Prior knowledge:
heterodimer; A: mainly alpha; B: globular
Amino acid sequence: MERLLEVLSECCPDVDFDVEKELITGKVIDSVDLVAVVSDIEDEFGISIPMEELVPENFDSIEAIWEMVQRLS
Amino acid sequence: MSITSIWFIIFILLAMVVYYIVPKRFQYLVLLAASIAFYLSYGIGYMPYILATTVITYAGARIFGNPEYKHRKAVMVVTLLLSLGLLCYTKYTNFLLGTLDKLAGGGKIEMIDLVVPLGVSFYTFMSVGYILDVYWKKYEAEKNFLRYATFIMYFPHIVQGPIDRYNKLAPQFFGGKKFDFQRMVSGGELILWGFFLKLVIANRLGMFVDTVFGDVTAHGGAVWLVTLALYSIQTYADFLGCMEIARGTSLLFGIDLERNFDHPYFAKTIPEFWRRWHMTMGAWFKDYLFLPVSNSSFVKKTSKKLGKKFGAKARKNFVSCFSVAVVWLSTGIWHGAGWKFIAWGCYHGCLTIGGTLFGDKIDKLTAWLKINTKTKSWELFQMTRTLLLCCFGRIFFRANSISEAFLIMKQMVTRLEIWKLVDGSLYELGLDRANFMVAILSIVVLWCVSMLQERGSVREMIAKQNLVFRYLILYIAIFAVLIFGIYGPGYVASSFIYEQF
Lengths: 73, 501
């Protein structure tokens, strides 16, 4: 999860990923930020995130993202 | 059957009687039968197209909806192409032939006699949304063809949307609905409000707008400014009116349709305007075009390269600008087969991209000028700026061609003729003084209702009032529509601006 936090913090340095639990539904990160997040996670973890995974539930918190990464790894 | 005609009222009353009499498990079949009857009332020639789209997308989704199926992607692509192909064939064939003919010198290529099916853009988009959602495993493919057909053909949303999502709308068809008097009142109020918007405001303003656009060389800047402002209100009242009639009608059957407007003219920026105007279309483009494009390998790879060379901001700007450009070009094309719609789409794309690229600089400039951006006056300025930019863009939308649009712009700059605002000339452009006054009063009513709606549901506010007051409002609204509605000869009340899309 630390690796993930590093990737996310590099993508969106203004966002506190430890605190924010509604990243998408709370509009903390927009769809353009999401593209960078997806792209960097794919590179870092060597996975491919398909379109069906691009739903708010998978990106609302670092825990949700981590769960998705583990599922797709 | 126009949705503003007495026949439509009789039709929904009959449908409602049958709907609430039959056993609940058959209610959706009543909706399907009513939807087919409604669609046929516009002409039998439209039916094969909607039927083809329904059958193709239903069958395709049934095949690739099976997660074990090997060729899911191939079948999905074929289904998508067939569905979009029908839209393109009916809507854009003559546009393409006309363009090719012009390039070839003119008079060499004959146009094809084609019908553009009613609501083709709307039902195609709904079916494409369904295809992609099933492919992305957001929900399972519908097994029952009649249930799926009810979703596609549902008559309240077939004329002008909203562009509904299967997973949100369809479950409402099959739950079984009881007759609810309060819901009937609520639906009736929405329909009445829709009639007021369409018949009293939109049709009245349309008479002025049509007259001015009928002879674009005859008017100077002042008249054009008034016309563009009135056309913006006409479009809003026309589209919102249709949506309120659709939502109200649907509510009579116990089904909630998506809201399509959230007071767009209170928006402070262009992107906010588009989040408030035709909301279901914006959401559709975001989910089914913006996200797939911005998550495509091309955009990801290119943005990453740019990010390494020029920094994170360049990366973000590229993703945003590229995807926005694709979305706005598509939005322009979706609105109509003509270069003027493409120009209109490009105009809004440029405004949105401009906002992305120069937003920071504008913020810095306002800070440097020491403008307090937390004041009502600044908000008013932002709203006026957005409104003016949208009004200006509507020149492309309403003019007959791009060259005519540029001619209008030229007239606006070279011939101001400001005295025409006060010398009575405005009353000779399709609306006499009395009708102008009715139009202005009606717009004030629209504005007041919009302000109230920003605070909460107006229907709920009315419901809390005393019986006498509620009836008073009801009678005033009915008589306003009956007395001030424009139904007269030479005006086709049935035609909505967005119906052609």
